[in-house]
From TrEMBL:
GO cellular component: membrane
Protein's UniProt keywords contain Protease: no
Organism classification: Eukaryota, Viridiplantae, Streptophyta, Embryophyta, Tracheophyta
The EF-hand domain, residue ranges: 67-102, 104-139, 177-212
Keyword Magnesium listed: no
Pfam families registered for this protein in UniProt: EF-hand_5, EF-hand_7
GO molecular function: calcium ion binding; kinase binding
Name of the featured protein: Calcineurin B-like protein
Family assignment from sequence similarity: Belongs to the calcineurin regulatory subunit family.
Gene from which the chain derives: LOC105042654
UniProt-listed GO biological process terms: calcium-mediated signaling
Keywords: Calcium, Membrane, Metal-binding, Repeat
Assembly information from the UniProt record: Homodimer. Interacts with CIPK.
The organism of origin for this protein: Elaeis guineensis var. tenera (Oil palm)
Length: 244
């Protein structure tokens, strides 16, 4: 009898074993496998090399690969942990895990802090808080649409970043109103009065203003396997096999 050979599965560059990713994130093995299907769709939208480039990331978030949005740039930078200009599969899953409904609140708070720490100094300065003061009104990054339909920013650009966020929310405020929001937000958050907001101050500020974390949770991530049901049936590893 002849031997039956099976063709090895070809994965995208930077692929990581779903079992490994499930062990270090909030996702189950089936959910990671479903996310891989989503990842492949995004990775072949424009460049078609199986990796998510910034243009593809912006197309997924805003349905426009050429639309300049500093907020999207910042989120991309945080997802791109290796800082090599692309989001690999492992980075994609680990970063999205923070937005899972079951992810620890501490992780969400820390990610949000890094999001607004534009110059990566370990604290938020007054100019940088412009973005955090408008975050509560920003929509949910369009990730729900993505799932179901399959660098640092210099202070000079912060006003543009705020206006972009407000525009996404269909809110149009005058410069004076924006400045008032910034002043009020910073005065409330900077409890030490030293002109900066450190991580501890940020945690306390978020506790008093939980709406700042509203966009850090994407309920659709709990139902990711419903978007790609074939993986639930064909998964090589059962989720219960991962329990200890």
């Amino acid at each position: 009898m002849g031997c039956i050979s099976t063709k090895p599965t070809k994965h995208t560059p930077g692929y990581e074993d779903p079992k490994v990713l499930a062990a270090v994130t909030t996702f189950t093995v089936s959910e990671v496998e479903a996310l891989y299907e989503l990842y492949k769709k995004l990775g072949f939208l424009i460049i078609k090399d199986g990796l998510i480039h910034k243009e593809e990331f912006q197309l997924a978030l805003f349905r426009n690969s050429k639309k300049q949005n500093l907020f999207a740039d910042r989120v991309f930078d945080l997802f791109d942990v290796k800082h090599n200009g692309v989001i690999e599969f492992g980075e994609f899953v680990r970063s999205l895990s923070i937005f899972h409904p079951d992810a620890p609140e501490e992780d969400k708070i820390a990610f949000a802090f890094r999001l607004y720490d534009l110059r990566q100094t370990g604290y938020i300065e007054r100019d940088e808080v412009l973005s955090s003061s408008t975050e509560a009104s920003y929509r949910r990054l369009h990730w729900s649409n993505v799932i179901w339909s399959s660098s640092q920013a210099a202070p000079a650009y912060l006003k543009e970043m705020v206006l972009a966020l407000l525009n996404e929310s269909d809110l149009f405020l005058s410069d004076e109103v924006v400045e008032q929001i910034v002043d009020k937000t910073f005065s409330e958050a900077d409890s030490k009065g030293d002109g900066i907001i450190d991580l501890d101050e940020w945690k306390e500020f978020v506790k008093r203003n939980p709406s700042l974390l509203r966009n850090m949770t994407l309920p659709y991530l709990k139902d990711i396997t419903l978007a790609f049901p074939s993986f639930v049936m064909n998964s090589e590893v059962k989720d219960e096999d991962m329990t200890i």
